[in-house]
Automatic annotation (TrEMBL):
Subunit structure and binding partners: Homodimer.
GO terms under biological process: DNA replication; protein refolding; response to heat
Pfam families: DnaJ (PF00226), DnaJ_C (PF01556), DnaJ_CXXCXGXG (PF00684)
Name of protein: Chaperone protein DnaJ
Origin superkingdom: Bacteria
Binding residues annotated for Zn(2+) 1, in chain numbering: C146, C149, C199, C202
CR-type zinc finger span: 133-211
Residues reported in the UniProt entry to bind Zn(2+) 2: C163, C166, C185, C188
Residues of the CR-type domain: 133-211
Functional summary from the UniProt entry: Participates actively in the response to hyperosmotic and heat shock by preventing the aggregation of stress-denatured proteins and by disaggregating proteins, also in an autonomous, DnaK-independent fashion. Unfolded proteins bind initially to DnaJ; upon interaction with the DnaJ-bound protein, DnaK hydrolyzes its bound ATP, resulting in the formation of a stable complex. GrpE releases ADP from DnaK; ATP binding to DnaK triggers the release of the substrate protein, thus completing the reaction cycle.
Keyword tags: Chaperone, Cytoplasm, DNA replication, Metal-binding, Repeat, Stress response, Zinc, Zinc-finger
Amino acid sequence: MSKRDYYEVLGVSKDASERDIKKAYKRLAMKYHPDRTAGNAELETKFKEVKEAYEVLTDSQKRQMYDQYGHAAFDQNGGGHGGFGGGQGDFGDIFGDVFGDIFGGGGRRQSRQQRGADLRYNMDLSLEEAVRGKEAEIKVPTWVSCSPCDGSGAKAGSKPKTCTTCHGAGQVQMRQGFFAVQQTCPTCQGTGSIISDPCNKCHGQGRVEKTKTLNVKIPAGVDTGDRIRLSGEGEAGLHGAPSGDLYVQVAVREHPIFTRDGNNLYCEVPISFSTAALGGEIEVPTLDGRANLKIPAESQTGKMFRMRGKGVKSVRSGAVGDLICKVVLETPVNLNERQKELLREFEESMGGMNGKNRPKAQGFFDGVKKFFDDLTK
């Protein structure tokens, strides 16, 4: 499948300034970044496409080559990502380029070390745990920094040597005719150094496998889809590179009584015919315990009652939702003969379907009669 024009990908004109390109990238990167679109392969692909376009158009040499030769300027040296992007990439590098000037960083990072992978831990919570928050102990199998070599990968008493191929840069320049493209150094794999005497425990990787035990604090008010980020608790990088992050993904189990929608809770409360007709006070459940709810006379089934402040406190704004109780008229069952007789007497006293005690029924049947009269005209 042919690649899209890089200017089109970023939504800028061909004479756009570097500042305009960075501004366009910042907007798209925030929209498609994997931290916001986890699990969506299509949006992750878009992020890589945006990232690749940004890398070319903010490099004056590469941009000049692209303007002259198009994608052909890079396809000869590695295809796919043009030999300078590659794989999933280090999202931190790009964000450092865009936001560096704001926070005083400025310019590209010199280190070629690739940070460790981010990890995800799925945590199931009950509704009560999600609403009130909790602390939990979790076990995460991961890679951690090797202690004997302190993450360097070199045996104690020795240290990595500067790569003689790239002289520590981690990249080499490949030339083919008119083209000159930066590629990862094949000797040191982009690290800029060579380990001639590797550590016996990690065999030169600078990290070892281990199951870590962590305490996670779940804030009150979380809901399904929320993520808690534990910075630096992901996989350790190779050869002392920074660790990735651990994301605790929250999923709230279904509750037998309550349904949650944002900060509000909903529940159905059965009421008797006599309570609906005459009114009364019933006991309803809340997450804080029992509460009394007044039912006015002549309440119809399906009527909603709002109990303010009995919902969920938002984890972000601190606002507290409500509990919405839907009353449902319960038809009595297993009636004895006396009860059936009383109901028949009551029915007779109502004066049939057109009685004044049944305004909805009367309106319905009047409408039905009109409908059939219109059909026969």
